[in-house]
Amino acid sequence: MALWSSESWTRISKVRGESPLIQCITNLVSMDLMANVLLSAGASPAMIHSVTEIPDFTPVVQGLCVNVGTLSDEWLPSMKAAAKIAREMGKPWVLDPVAAGASGFRLRACLELVEMRPTVIRGNGSEVMALAKATVGSCKGADSCVESTDALEAAKALAKSSGAVVAVSGAVDVVTDGERVVCAKNGVPMLQRITATGCSVTALITAFVAIDPQNPLEATASALAVFGVAAEMGMEMAKGPASLRMQLIDSLYNLDESTLRNRLNISSLPCL
Fold first, then answer.
1. pLDDT less than 50: residues of the chain
2. What confidence score (pLDDT) does residue 8 get?
3. Quick one: three-class SS letters along the chain?
4. What is the reported pLDDT for 140?
């Protein structure tokens, strides 16, 4: 645990020191919170999604976050173009397959993006299982029908087939490269009552992987835990979802080494 705390603090400190430029092609619901989470962590967000700008802009970023929440025919070419450039230039990119199994169009789009070799795939249990099985499911929108730990085998299979680190968010966040499995246990249930918190932690993962591209599994687990610690801190001052949203951003900005060391909870299997 001490090693994880030390490395996680090193990563958040490096994000603050280097302020990596993170391009977010994301959904209309999440832009505000994603940008503010990145800023509060010390990164520099850029919500650039025009396909015309991709050839000029994507080559200069340190990381790319692709989120399909409000997917459209118009935005999909931008996502693919940016992912192609990121992969060709060796830049990390992270896929958030929001509601991947909600429709055939959405599932096909996500599977096409998975074929473009993301560095990390971050979703809930139902999204990861939909990608692993390539099936349309019956879940309600972006909500998960299964616990993160129940999707572990699907996550390992998806990691092996895609070459990506796969993170499954839930009460326990499960991260795997197909062989190793790490569990991040920080966070609060009320995050589920705030839209775009999952999208925002994906953006934070992108920033962490951008400054530590050689260790995507460790960087992903650190980002999930740091976000969870900030949520725990914020919950101590919050009165409900709206104030937690504000306190989460402030807590991430004010997070110090001592607090992180005392609160961070990452372990290998078993996750329970």
1. none
2. 97
3. CHHHHHHHHHHHHHHHHHCCEEEEECCCCCHHHHHHHHHHHCCEEECCCCCCCHHHHHHHCCEEEEECCCCCCCCHHHHHHHHHHHHHCCCCEEEECCCCCCCHHHHHHHHHHHCCCCCEEEEEHHHHHHHHHCCCCCCCCCCCCCCHHHHHHHHHHHHHHHCCEEEEECCCEEEECCCCEEEECCCCHHHHHCCCHHHHHHHHHHHHHHHCCCCHHHHHHHHHHHHHHHHHHHHCCCCCHHHHHHHHHHHHHHCCHHHHHHHCCEEECCCC
4. 53
CA distances from 191 to 82, 161, 241, 245 (A): 30, 31, 7, 8
Name every residue whose Cβ is closer than 8 Å to that of residue 195 and which is 6 or more positions away in sequence: 29, 30, 33
Residue-wise pLDDT for 98-151, tens only, equals: 999 999 999 999 999 999 999 999 999 999 999 999 888 655 555 556 677 889
Query: How many domains does the chain fold into?
Result: 1
| CATH number reported for the structural domain that contains residue 156 in this entry | 3.40.1190.20
Domain that holds residue 171: 1-268
